[in-house]
Amino acid sequence: MSTLSRLLPSLDKLAVSTSAVCAIHCLSLPLVVGLFPAVSATVFGQEAFHQLLLWVVIPLSIVALTLGCRNHKSWLVGILGFIGLSVLMAAAALGHDALGESGERIATLTGSVFIAAGHLLNYRLCRRSDCDH
Question: Per residue in 105-125, is it b (16+ CB within 10 Å) or e — as a string?
């Protein structure tokens, strides 16, 4: 088993965690800024935070999902990941100017859910295939 294959479960967990951080940030930011307006001046209140998360999520997801698909040959994992990444990138590219505040939030959450589902399925399938060896 290669080093990358051994790292795959950790990559999937990290990718799911990053997607969860993105979703939590998206849901909680309006409330937090409403209660603590100074948060909007920090990195967490800036649009750059979403872009930073994308710079982590995209390569991490591509590597983990590609390696997993090679091991267990499930196209569903790749499809879920592709849909999630595409929706997240579209939400980031279009932003709230084109989608509106709610539209951007819904797109970000939808993309995060698809990515997380792909990684969770990938994790399960990889664990199952590793147990067979």
Answer: bebbbbbbbbbbbbbbbbbeb
CA distance 29 to 10: 28
Query: Among the residues of 36-74, which ranges form H helices?
Result: 47-72
Q: Rounded to the nearest 10 degrees, what angle do helices 47-72 and 75-132 cross at?
A: 60
Assessment of whether the complete model's pTM goes beyond 0.85? no
pLDDT digits (tens, 9 = 90+) for 21-78: 777 767 776 777 677 677 666 766 666 777 787 888 888 888 888 887 777 788 899 8
- Within 8 A by CB and 6+ apart from 14, the residues are 60
Q: Measure CA of the first residue to CA of the last residue in the chain; give whole Å.
A: 10
* φ, ψ at 2 (rounded to 5°): -75, 165
Burial (CB count <10 Å: 0-12, 13-18, 19+), residue 103: middle
Classify 73 in phi/psi space as left (phi over 0), alpha (psi -120 to 50) or beta. left
